[in-house]
Design brief:
Elements (H helix, E strand, L loop, with lengths): L1 H22 L7 H9 L4 H36 L11 H14 L5 H23 L6 H25 L2 H12 L9 H16 L1 H7 L3 H6 L4 H23 L5 H11 L5 H25 L8 H27 L1
Helix pairs in contact: 1-3, 1-13, 2-3, 3-8, 3-11, 3-12, 3-13, 4-5, 4-6, 4-7, 4-11, 5-6, 5-11, 8-11, 8-13, 12-13, 12-14, 13-14
């Protein structure tokens, strides 16, 4: 019952954040107008504002936040590191390199998204190939390889920014900080999110055993090597799609799993769907603030997630330290 209440509460939070995002903007929209639009009996201007301008961006924000939170929860199990997030293995660096190359060549739209996804996929395969080598790989070797590859992508990104014309720098910096202004309705990404969640739930019990240690999981019949590969590929693909949609949005994949664990959610069969709902709600709210706090000027959504994420993470560290002290 407690699990059902938690998921119901997070579902209501998600619905509320989506509704508030659709109502918020430079042009005021009241609840009656929103319901009229959803019923299909509104005027053309209201329909365009809500369904063609706000809804695609709001939906993209929710799907992106959900993907990052799910990928972050999986990465923390894979690396057994509480500081692990979806970007720790260099996926975002490869995507950023592809996106910046596309902008440098004056390409946009599907070219931009395709280039970002290709770069993310290349980085994923590069890290996996280097970490695996000719034999078995460990989480420590994977983490070290990812950090080194991410540093290499960082150097390439700095080079691209240095040679880029000034007129294009603003768009590049916005993308690097997380930007949903180019977002379209994420139909395919939503399908990928749903499939990823189903696959993650299917290995939920094994994820619970992995948190006890690989030796303990293996002694209980978990195929650890295969499971690690599945977790890595699943988390990396979710991250690649998220970065393709919105650029590098930080802290969502790091903070959300910790918030849920601090609330006592340990079973991954509950934590994963809860992370999807909470991560989507968090990014929708951050994007709504990015659109409205300095309207008509818009901020990169990554700025808002960082401003909220840094103090929130410090609070989490403080409370986790106190809980550890109480147990001793």
């Amino acid at each position: 019952m407690r699990s059902l209440f938690l998921l119901a509460g997070l579902a209501l939070l998600s619905a509320g954040s989506l509704a508030i995002s659709l109502l918020s903007g430079s042009i005021d929209t009241d609840l009656d107008s929103l319901l009229t639009v959803l019923a299909g009996s509104s005027d053309e201007l209201s329909r365009q504002i809500v369904m063609e301008l706000r809804w695609p961006r709001t939906a993209a924000a929710f799907v992106t936040g959900a993907m990052l939170a799910l990928a972050g929860a999986l990465m923390q199990v894979l690396l057994r590191n509480p500081l692990a997030d979806p970007y720790v293995l260099g996926i975002s660096g490869g995507a950023a390199t592809g996106a910046l190359l596309s902008m440098l060549l004056g390409l946009g739209g599907w070219w931009l998204q395709g280039s970002a996804f290709t770069g993310a996929l290349l980085s994923m395969l590069l890290v996996f190939g280097l970490a695996h080598g000719s034999g078995a790989w460990s989480s420590h070797r994977l983490l070290l390889t990812g950090v080194v590859v991410a540093a290499g992508w960082g150097a390439v990104i700095a080079f691209l920014l240095a040679i880029s014309p000034e007129r294009g720098l603003r768009g590049m910096l916005f993308w690097l900080m997380g930007d949903l202004s180019r977002a379209t309705l994420p139909v395919f990404a939503a399908a990928v999110l749903a499939a990823g969640l189903v696959m993650a739930l299917a290995i939920g019990r094994s994820l619970n055993l992995m948190t006890r240690g690989e030796l303990a999981a293996q002694s209980l019949g978990v195929p650890v090597q295969t499971l690690r590969t599945v977790i890595y590929l699943l988390a990396s693909l979710l991250t690649a799609f998220a970065v393709t949609l919105a650029g590098s949005v930080g802290f969502v994949g790091l903070i959300v799993p910790h918030l849920l664990r601090l609330a006592g959610v340990r079973d991954h069969r509950l934590l994963l769907p809860a992370a999807v709902l909470l991560g989507g709600s968090l990014l929708v709210t951050a994007d709504m603030l990015a659109r409205t706090v300095l309207a008509p000027q818009q901020l990169p959504v990554g700025i808002l997630t960082a401003l909220v994420g840094v103090p929130l993470f410090l609070v989490l560290l403080y409370y986790s330290r106190n809980q550890a002290g109480n147990r001793t």
